[in-house]
């Protein structure tokens, strides 16, 4: 599986640690930046990674900033993307199982490296299905997509 990653200047150390972790686990990593410690705003990285996922450059994404909030807000502005902020193993599982989120976000000032590894594993190990309970989740995702389309939600 190809996994997109990206961060702002508040989360470079965590992004690099998770990038190494993903490499060790055999994932192909597509790094959308940043690459060195320098001031960087999260919207550009989030937009680039989200568009990369929509274009098939990666199947899922993990974005990092100080809290995870900014990356989630920015990625969710890209039409067709569902990004979920995660800070624990259960929300990471549900991001995929209940919401079929293409991206999770993690706050580097909220979560340490070892917990981030658990979160990432719990997210990537899940696979959305429309069977059983997944049927109810699929219906809700369809509702979100309909609203997104009706409202003309687009990136700015």
TrEMBL record:
GO BP term (any one): lactose metabolic process
* Alphabetized Pfam families for the sequence: LacAB_rpiB (PF02502)
UniProt-listed SUPFAM superfamilies: Ribose/Galactose isomerase RpiB/AlsB (SSF89623)
Keyword Transmembrane helix attached: no
The signal peptide here is none
Q: Which GO terms describe its molecular function?
A: intramolecular oxidoreductase activity, interconverting aldoses and ketoses
Presence of keyword Glycoprotein: no
InterPro entries assigned to the protein according to its UniProt record, in alphabetical order: RpiB, RpiB_LacA_LacB, RpiB_LacA_LacB_sf, SPI_LacAB/RpiB
Q: Which UniProt keywords apply?
A: Isomerase, Lactose metabolism
The text of the family note is: Belongs to the LacAB/RpiB family.
**Name recorded for this polypeptide:** Ribose 5-phosphate isomerase B
Species annotation: Enterococcus malodoratus ATCC 43197
Q: What is the lineage of its organism?
A: Bacteria, Bacillati, Bacillota, Bacilli, Lactobacillales
């Amino acid at each position: 599986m190809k996994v997109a990653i990206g961060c702002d200047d508040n989360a470079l150390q965590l992004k690099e640690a998770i990038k190494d972790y993903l490499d060790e686990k055999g994932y192909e990593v597509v790094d959308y930046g940043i690459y060195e410690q320098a001031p960087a705003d999260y919207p550009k990285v989030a937009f680039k990674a989200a568009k990369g996922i929509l274009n098939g450059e990666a199947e899922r994404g993990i974005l990092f900033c100080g809290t995870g909030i900014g990356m989630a807000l920015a990625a969710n502005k890209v039409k067709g993307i569902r990004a979920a902020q995660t800070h624990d193993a259960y929300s990471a599982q549900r991001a995929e199982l209940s919401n079929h989120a293409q991206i999770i976000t993690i706050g580097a000032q909220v979560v340490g490296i070892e917990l981030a590894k658990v979160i990432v594993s719990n997210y990537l190990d899940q696979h959305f299905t429309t069977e059983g309970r997944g049927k109810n989740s699929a219906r809700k995702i369809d509702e979100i997509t309909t609203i997104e389309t009706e409202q003309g939600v687009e990136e700015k």
